[in-house]
Amino acid sequence: MTTRRSIGVIIGLFALLLMALPSAFAGDKEVVVLLGSLREAHITVARGDQVTWRNASGEKAHMAFMQDPGAAHPEVWIEGTVTVIFGQLGTYEYHVHQPHAKILHGRVTVK
Hints:
The protein is an alpha+beta fold.
């Protein structure tokens, strides 16, 4: 009887773990940079969530977040992936430049 109870407890704990896994990663989002387009360009996340940009275009690309029109803004080269954790509420506009494609625009809204 003890062995059956132990197996039941193990199965129950395993089921709880499987149910918890999707919610643990629910806030993580991915934006895929393609040649001339963005997959999931406009996304909404919760504060503390992370967004990963993955460059699948086959070309170099750089991303810049727009802070204030006319002001200098930091640029990040995306050669593989870049991950940003959003700790403050707000709307973050960004654009991605590619050598042989149009400028791509996107937005991250943090609620």
